[in-house]
Amino acid sequence: NDRQSGREIFYNLLRPSFVKNFSISLCSDALSLWAEGDPLFKEYNQDIENATIYLYTQAIPNFARRVGMENPETYSANNLVEDLHASGINLRHLGFVRRHLPLTAPAGIHRLILTELIARGIKNELRVRLRNTMEKERITREEPSQRAVFSYLTPVFYQSK
Fold first, then answer.
1. Which of 78, 114, 93 is nearest to 15 (CA)?
2. Could you give the C-alpha distances from 59 to 34, 41, 75, in angstroms and in order?
3. 48 near 26, Cβ under 8 Å?
4. Rounded distance, CA 42 to CA 140, Å?
5. pLDDT less than 50: residues of the chain
6. Structure pTM?
7. Residues 6+ apart with CB under 8 A from 96
8. At the N or C end, where does the chain have fewer CB atoms within 10 A?
9. What is the rounded CA–CA span in Å between residue 92 and residue 123?
10. What are the pLDDT digits (tens) for 67-88?
11. What is the chain written as a DSSP string?
């Protein structure tokens, strides 16, 4: 698991649009051993920590307030994803966005975000299952993958009476 190996530095990155618009320049080597010999290493790391705190305490709540004023009749999942990215927020933070939605936000906006969260959760779990199936089978046949997809999605979408 990458989270246990310390490799998350390679994919848990700040979005380029966030870095570009942040109040100070951020070092791309912060939090890695590549900058360890630099005399400003600790400062680089502190800057990244400050940027992350800003993301969670300012950028995400501000975005949630803004999206909470959207009209659910015209605001789609595509709009949501584009706006998140333009605001420098990764989709993995969508749960935090939902948590910060104003209570006065239209129910349709709450539903849109919840639907996006559920769809992405299903997609990610399906990817894991397909990857595991491919590793286990060691051959590229469709049938094992189809079985894995069917066995996972059937209880997700099938409603017993």
1. 93
2. 28, 25, 20
3. yes
4. 47
5. 1-3
6. 0.78
7. 56, 60
8. C
9. 13
10. 999 999 999 999 999 999 999 9
11. -HHHHTGGGGTSPPPHHHHHHSSS---TTTTSGGGTTSTTHHHHHHHHHHHHHHIIIIIHHHHHHHHTTS-TTT--HHHHHHHHHHTT--GGGHHHHHHTS-TTS-HHHHHHHHHHHHHHHHHHHHHHHHHHHHHHH-S--HHHHHHHHHHHHHHHH----
The residue among 51, 127, 125 whose CA lies nearest residue 90 is 51
Q: How far apart are CA 71 and CA 47, in angstroms?
A: 36
* Torsions phi, psi for 16 (to 5 deg): -55, -40
Residue corresponding to tokens 């501000």 = 62
Closest CA to 12 of 84, 82, 90, 87: 90
pLDDT, position 106: 97
Q: Which residues contact 137 (CB under 8 A, 6 or more apart)?
A: 144
Instruction: Using the structure block, give the residue that is written with the tokens 């993958």.
Output: 145
pLDDT for 73: 94
**Selection from 152, 135, 70, 126 nearest residue 80 by Cα:** 70
Which among 66, 77, 142, 128 is positioned nearest to 101, based on CA atoms?
66
